[in-house]
Amino acid sequence: MRIVIAFVCGLLFGIGLLISGMVDPDKVRGFLDITGQWDPSLALVMAGAIGVAMPCMQWARRHDAQRNDTAAGKGDADSESRRIDRPLIIGSLVFGIGWGVSGYCPGPALVAASSGHATALWYVLAMAVGGWLAALSRKR
Fold first, then answer.
1. What are 6-54's pLDDT values in tens digits?
2. How many other C-beta atoms are found inside a 10 Å radius of the C-beta of residue 133?
């Protein structure tokens, strides 16, 4: 049942990205271009998404805390680190630079790649290689 719920949530997320235009890298770059032709529509999409997700996340947090489990069924819900450390900062910088240069973040890139957009396919490949390199560096 969890797989069906995850699939439906992913499908709704992808449809929302398509409808809002967030799979268009030019729209994202327009949002990031605060000194030029700024497009505030991404901020409105994010605000709407937060408004919809927040009650669901709060419900899930209460529900998971009662079971002492995460939504994915992986142990203690509060076990993850909340430290701001070097890997977090470096990863955030790499993500932000990649987002600004490419106009894609992971969700919209996967949606665009599934439609066969070459730039999105390259982005997803680079994202996979970056994830693999990050996992290798953690092992060392």
1. 999 889 888 988 888 888 898 888 888 889 888 888 888 889 889 988 9
2. 10
Q: How far apart are CA 138 and CA 6, in angstroms?
A: 28
At residue 74 the predicted structure's pLDDT band, cuts being 50, 70 and 90, is: low
Cα separation, 119 vs 64, in Å, equals: 39
Nearest CA to 77 among 89, 94, 96, 63?
63
Q: How many residues does the chain have?
A: 140
Residues 6+ away with beta carbon under 8 Å from 127: 98, 106, 109
Q: Which residue did the predictor score with more confidence, 72 or 89? A: 89
Report the C-alpha gap between 61 and 65 in whole angstroms: 6
pLDDT at 132: 92
Look at residue 68 and tell me whether its pLDDT is greater than 70. Answer: no
Q: Dihedrals φ, ψ of 33, to 5°?
A: -85, 75
State how far the Cα of 54 lies from the Cα of 62, in Å rounded to an integer.
12
- CA-CA-CA-CA dihedral for 109, 96, 29, 16, to nearest 10: 40
